Amino acid sequence: MSLEQEDNVSFVEKALSRLKRQQQESLPVGEIREQQPAAAEPVKTATTGAEPPDHTRSTRFIAVERERLRAEGFLASDRYRRQLADEYRIIKRPLIANAFGIGAPRVDDGNLILVSSAMSGEGKTHTCINLALSLSAEQDRTVLLVDGDVAKPHISRLFGVADQPGLLDALGDERRPLDELLIRTDIPGLVLLPAGRWSEYTTELLASDRMRELCHELAGRYRDRIILFDSPPLLATTEAQAIAQSVGQIALVIAENMTPRENVRAALELLDKSKPINAILNKSRRPIIGGYHYGGYGYGQNSDADGAADSKPQT
Length: 315
Ligand SMILES: Nc1ncnc2c1ncn2[C@@H]1O[C@H](COP(=O)(O)OP(=O)(O)O)[C@@H](O)[C@H]1O
Ligand SMILES: [Mg+2]
Fold this sequence. Notes:
The chain has ten helices and ten strands. About 35% of the residues lie in helices and about 15% in strands. The chain is an alpha/beta fold. Bound molecules: adenosine-5'-diphosphate (ADP) and magnesium ion (MG). The site of adenosine-5'-diphosphate (ADP) has 16 residues, from helix 4, strand 9 and strand 10. Adenosine-5'-diphosphate binds near residues 154 and 283.
């Protein structure tokens, strides 16, 4: 079989298996269901040709309460959905380029992306969720959304998995297989890793060698996937900085007219400049893609703090 034929067959197989998954997954929303691993699609790695354990094999599954996400402002209303989709197309382009070496050099572990910001309320969780949805909507792209804001696990709560074991459990017990902790969703291509059980050694766990190993393992094992980490604000705790050490690239959300320039600079100082840092200007009312909007868009790599406020934050 030629390479081209193989590509076509694997494309059709993936599409069929995705369709089958969608048909299976009509569960009452918000309920976690255990599933047989056999129901999931096998995935081969380019390096070994073997079938590694894969997060699409995760036995846990949840139907997402989209209404809750919408009600809390984390999904766009019908009116703005198209505009949001256009904006996220711009935001994700440089991230994908770095992660997969498309039109840019491939960045080491570039498929691991930390979403952070200087301060709270700038839109990290909002950006993470919408970026994950935008990426997972692409053909054949799977996204693992990791709740790295372990002290305030907003993503875990929004998706109804706050009581489930997750990242901290994987870090605290190295015998615990990661696949057991991942939760597939009824949103095709979207997999969750909840924050997990809080421990007083959280920062140490996130800064540990085990975290670096786990991230490196995730990046290598799921080379064709994007792994997105939500996080606390960089200036509030050391946890985001700890996660930043283990990822390949960083998306820094900056709320326009809210975050003082010096805070953005201070946040940038905490990050390793050898990694690509993409700034995402959020809550902007400037005309970007026709008309005024209240949204975000990517505006450059390793950027200075343009667009941030000179004054004190309003909140
Ligand atoms: N681009 C946006 N458009 C509309 N609402 C937004 C946007 N970004 C953030 N928000 C809202 O602002 C609030 C704070 O956002 P959130 O993502 O929770 O911030 P963070 O995670 O940085 O603390 C939330 O209510 C969220 O819905
Ligand atoms: Mg948040």
